[in-house]
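hiii so my PI (J.) wants the whole complex modelled not just the main chain, which honestly fair. so below is everything: three entries, each one labled with what it is. i double checked the lines twice but i was tired so who knows lol
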Amino acid sequence: MTTIVRATEPTVTGTRPPVGLVAFAVVAAAAAAIPLVYLVVRAGETGLATIIQTLSRGRVLEYAANSLGLALAVTATALVLGTAVAVVLTRIRVPFPRSWLLLSSLPLAVPSYLAGYGWLVSFPSLSGFVPSWLLLAAVTTPYVTLPVAAALRSATGDLEGVARSLGRGPIGAFFVATWPQVRPAAIAGSLLVALYALSDFGLVAMMRFPTLTWGINSAYAASFDRAQAATLALLLVVMALVVVAGERGARRQLPRTTARAVRPRTISRGMLVSLLPVVAAAPVVGVAVPLLGLGTRLVQADTLRAVDVPRLLGAIGATVGVAVAAAVLAVLLALPIAALAARYRGRLVSAIESVGYLGHALPGIVVGLSLVFFALAVVPALYQSVVVLVFAYAVLFMPKAIGTMRAGLGEVPPRLIAVARTTGASPLTAWWRVTVPLALPSLGVGALLVAIATMKELPATLLLRPTGINTLATELWNRTVVFEFGAAAPYAAVLVLIAAVPAMILSGVRSTAKEEL
Amino acid sequence: MRARRFLAPAALTAAIALMAGCATGDPSTDPVDPTTAPPADAGSFTLYSGRDEALVQPLIDQFTAETGIAVEVRYGNTAELGALLLEEGEATPADVFLSQDAGALGALSAADLFAPLPDDIAGAVPQGFTSTDGSWVGVTGRARVVVYDGERFTEAELPNEIDDYVDGDFAGSLGIAPGNASFQSFVTAYRVIDGEGDAEEWLSDLDARGYEVFENNRAILAATNDGVLDAGLINHYYWFAQAAEVGADNMRAQLKFLEAGDPGSIVNVTGAGILAGSAENEAALAFVEYLVSEEGQRYFVEQTFEYPLVPGIDAPEGLPSLESLVNPELDLSDLDDLATTQELLARLGFI
Amino acid sequence: MSELVVENASVDYGSTVGIADVSLRVDSGELVAVLGPSGCGKTTLLLAIAGLLPLAEGRIAVGDRELSSPAATVPPEKRGVGWVPQEASLFPHLSVGENIGFALAGGARRGGVRGRERAARIAELAELIGLSGLVGRAPNQLSGGQAQRVALARALAPRPDVLLLDEPFAALDTQLRVGLRREVAELLRAQGTTSLLVTHDQEEALTLADRVAVIRDGRLEQFGTPEEVYQQPASDWVARFVGDVVELDGEWRQGRVSCALGSVEAAAVGFTPRDGELVRLMLRPEWIVPRPDLLARAAAGADARVSGISYAGHDAMLTCDLVTGSRVRMRLPAVELPQVGDELRLAVQRPGLAFAA
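here's the output for the full assembly
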């Protein structure tokens, strides 16, 4: 029997969040705000006149327009394609659905610069907007596919049946009845895609498409003008805040219904085959072609030398180690913010959440330098230690965890907490014994997303890593920079393989909070 | 709940991996030849190297084997390391900075981050290839050249002066890396040699005739070698490195050295400096000395095909002599004025 | 002692009023039903007693402990008020036993003396609700009725002073509902737990409760024993809500109402009618009986023809058309029922209720 949870039932504590929770969330947001503070300090060094002058250069406006255009195009594409793939894989009876879902999650494991490089190997004349758009869309589509698939699994199919009985066709019924239920998941995933597209540098650099990140990098690397770089980065921050605010506006949570799962429909083989391009698009573009390209280079190169196994193992150890540590720290930092945003509204909550997302909008070099600044100023003994490096990852990738954790925490029915409290549990005890266990899958998802991103990260790692420690990404970069493909290929292959593990786990994680009884 | 199942094994794996990572240690401090026991307790220093590992590490190992001095190396991109050093300021853990180009050295020098080098080191390299105030010393020279598609053009078909590439004599596609320090050094040299007005005119002409943008010299070389690009402006040694990998006969791209005195043929330098806080560090000093010693210079000649800057050491084979490229009117320290070049390039839309 | 006192309680939902000026008192060990239609505020009252909603006015106290007032609300975990919500709401990630034992001491979860005490209490409660064998089951493996019982045991585990039940049987099918509610009421009485049961089902309220509080639009309409509420409703609305009514208009004359059923003795409720005033007479269907012996007498009673029979197994509701044209319904035990078309002489066997027209 399906019932709709009564919307009139109040949450236990009312509308004011507990002070302790707000305090923790503010601390976490402060960590995420370190890059912002750094940017303001550096940009401010030159004075307002110079800032305005920088921002009104024609080239800067071109950068900004390119960044915005790219972000919009990539987000729209990922949203449509990701939702389509999720629908096909959950609502239509396909052979080996779990394998397909797994495959569709693989692009997550491929760093964007690797995808770009792999394509350039086979098609060296690629450049400009279109390849940047399509490749970025391919590697970011899983950010939409996975949460939408999870949401579809737990969405009720009854409403669609009702819509059909009232005369809507299958597509219309989907939009009327099912889309509103999965929309929050799709929008949250799109936010990550948009921020990723804004902050990416590796791919657009290879495709020679001049975006703000290109401008920022030029400012650092060519003119050593940190103030100018900071000014451009602040422009990027403004764009990101607009995107984050937009997502919050579009995210309207429906009350959770106890769901009757939908049985996948059987369709004809012909139609199945015609759907194949949809499902295969992202994995082919984002994984298969680049890896093939790398493989051919590996075969061609004369510099294929024996792999330095201890070195490779060291890089693997470092990569996995920092990824796990970063995942744990990011989840811990994101938890108060997500908990706050899940249940409470208001300007303070919105502000805290928005600040939490900032790190993801900035290119790694900015976050890296901001933490150099911060570490040297505040904890110089820890400079160039693993601690600061892991902290940088947490600041960078906290946003990946905030969204899913907020959704998972929010899905725990308030009534369960209320009941727990009437049995004598304090709010904290109730949270720990009821909310956290039920939201644990979403915490796991957040951790996995952070882990994957950390494994692929490059610029901040180059800046902050302890001298002598290398991750797979930095080793790979060191070699591609000298065009030593033979030596680079094993690192590329291992990186994708290792990052694929959490990606595959992600594809199998079921949706959060089980059906309420 | 499924995630929970992975937490324990994942944490265990991570712990083991971290330990493995730490255990394999820092390869840069492993001595090369354990049989010749190096002098013990010879000191150590930290090097930030903008030159990549495959190139520099063997030299460092050689140095360590001979002197027993331990070197902790941080490899990276010159520009990013420069930005990092600027950001670190006095708190930097680095003792020596080995730079790929003069621009970064100039920027750091201008920020007073270098300690003055002793006269014997600063004086080892002739004026014109090193700093004017002794804050850093040039180590090797890299000539600007034109790389061209050998299957479509012969050397004779290509103009000898950089001006002729933009005002009509050359019709093929031309690639540049405007964000790259070596291109910007070239533009700066043009400004210095021929004046601001002519430099701007050259850039405008280039803009008018069209050009291909690349991120760096290697990308230009790769594109030329793949037949995608007709010609490009790069540094000489990249070609030699590529030729070493795939064989000189397999190189589709070929090099054209321009006339001496032409801005397009300037010689850039790589160099090294000692960071201000490490002036007393004997180990650091020993290394910089090593770089401009015969041994160090020969290493670069053999490994990187760059020009040695210390007099008396033979230049690599196949290269026109350094003297034939020197422009007596150009003071390398003037190449430090990147900021104005940046403004010019920005104003004209190149960056 | 654990008596529950609610005094002039009002709860606001922003612009809408949840409950207004509700006062009632549940004696220790008593089972009171809060009866009212959907949206009347009965759940609001419950949530206020549980401490999940603050009071705008009034007070709530259990024994000598002040629990709620406009100034302060004791948090739910410190009130000693248990709550069995609609639809069980068991913790899906815990087993039945762990759900039941949720309130029991934390450290005791591990083992030792406290652990054994806890296990013993869980076993005791599981047996009380008749589910001893299901202690290890997951909640999603239980039927609706079983889940409801587990929710009850969970709420009883910490020995609350007051137990609140929010329409606990609403989601169950009829057969199960009737049996389960009887069991639960007996259990609560045996335990001596002061209980407040919210329901919209009149039958449930009347059969289970010691006293019934009838709520309408946030206000308390009547608070009395089931008999009082049913036989002597305080208003026409209560009369209609708590059971079936037969309504006839008539003229008041000295303690009787002249209506289609003849001159019926009646008590005026809530007003003092003058002779000749038009009043509304309300009767319960079972107060109307066929009186064959009256067939001969013209004065008392009324003639009617049976036009419909609604058979319910144990009784039947007969629809009768009176000679005057009105239609009444009467309820008879289903033994030797008249047939459709039979002519009967009807009389009212006890005084009716007269309300202002």
